[in-house]
Design a protein that fits this description.
alpha/beta, TIM Barrel, two-stranded antiparallel sheet
């Protein structure tokens, strides 16, 4: 599909992309190191996929307090920064652009991952979910409600992680404010019952995100910052929609117009295995396209045809692909040549070694 709009370049603000195919952030649990430093295998994984217009890394925790999963490469120590330098150098050598996704899971963690400490969250409400830790999957616990000093420290952690990403050679960062994690927990009444400046009204529940953006803006250009949001997430990751949820996200998208961001990334996360999730994110994108004036990226179950359609109709500017990039390191080339996409082995999505990670062949190698 040589005329597919996914293959067109895109340039706006800090973004200068060779195509509109984005590799979505995906947790793969592949460091296998206690210090959570990216390995040569991680370098190879991202290098193989550098033909994407933009790569967004898996979520990388901004502090030891924000950890929510085993074997994830993080970005809060010097060793971790040095490890990520190898990744960015390899991607840049292949002509790629790469952003680091900055992640704090909040209450979606477990004391087994936090040296016995309780997870931090806006309020002491158990999400009743499961986390992947040293003892396999375990039920979440009631977290510790963040005090003002916890909030201020976490804001500093996001700022430092942004500076660490810059030092590591990333082209930008994405704040993971979707899928039930810390920012999302502040947004929602099911997880935020605070009575202070970070709870109650819509403005207060959105405040943490904007405080982080304001703090980052003092030391780093917001033109290099993206924000990922999940307006439709419901009954997953402990998030439950209520009568104020839609108004909350209307407010957030509106206010984001005041910041010169690289993009806003709508996550269409859904457990639906058909195309309902994709149709939902298209409907959501149509709505927020009328509100948000900057670059809009969308994600959920797209293929070459539906991705082209979303761009052709002006519903979005960029399309991010998750699962297809697992088994198709040359996804862009396959779109260009109208070549079939390889099906991934779901048994190797999380953890393990090279199998199901860096051993998928390209179409040139018989894939």
């Amino acid at each position: 599909m040589h005329n597919n709009k996914l293959l067109e370049s895109y340039k706006k603000r800090n973004l200068d992309l060779k195509n509109r195919v984005v590799m979505a952030p995906m947790t793969r649990n592949r460091t296998r190191r206690e210090d959570r430093v990216p390995t040569e295998m991680n370098v190879k994984y991202y290098e193989q996929r550098a033909s994407a217009g933009l790569i967004i890394t898996e979520g990388t925790h901004v502090s030891a307090e924000g950890i929510g999963s085993l074997y994830v490469p993080n970005i809060y120590t010097e060793k971790q920064v040095e490890g990520w330098k190898n990744v960015t150098k390899a991607v840049h050598k292949k002509g790629g652009v790469i952003f680091a996704q900055l992640w704090h899971v909040g209450r979606l963690s477990h004391p087994n991952l936090l040296n016995g400490n309780l997870p931090l969250a806006p309020s002491a409400i158990n999400p009743n979910f499961k986390t992947y830790g040293p003892k396999d999957f375990q039920e979440t616990v009631t977290p510790k409600a963040m005090e003002q000093e916890d909030i201020e420290r976490t804001i500093r952690d996001f700022v430092q992680a942004t500076l660490n990403a810059e030092k590591a050679g990333f082209n930008g960062v994405e704040l993971h404010a979707a899928n039930g994690y810390l920012f999302h927990q502040f947004f929602m009444q099911c997880s935020n019952t605070r009575k202070d400046n970070y709870g109650g009204s819509i403005e207060n529940r959105a405040r943490f995100l904007f405080d982080v953006l304001e703090a980052i803006a003092k030391v780093y250009p917001l033109e290099k910052v993206g924000v990922r949001l999940a307006p439709d997430l419901n009954h997953t990751f402990g998030i439950i929609q209520d009568e104020n949820s839609a108004a909350t996200f209307d407010y957030i998208f509106n206010k984001l117009n005041n910041y010169p961001l690289a993009y806003v990334h709508i996550s269409g996360f859904s457990l639906d295995k058909n195309h309902k999730g994709r149709e939902q994110v298209l409907a959501t994108a149509r709505k927020y396209r009328k509100i948000y004036k900057g670059t809009l990226m969308i994600n959920k179950g797209f293929d070459a045809k539906s991705g082209h359609y979303a761009l052709e109709e002006g519903i979005a500017d960029l399309i991010s692909f998750g699962v297809p990039f697992i088994s198709n390191p040359d996804l862009v080339e396959r779109i260009r040549e109208n070549h079939p996409w390889a099906i991934p082995d779901r048994n190797t999505f999380y953890g393990g070694g090279a199998e199901g990670y860096i051993d998928y062949p390209t179409m040139k190698n018989g894939g």
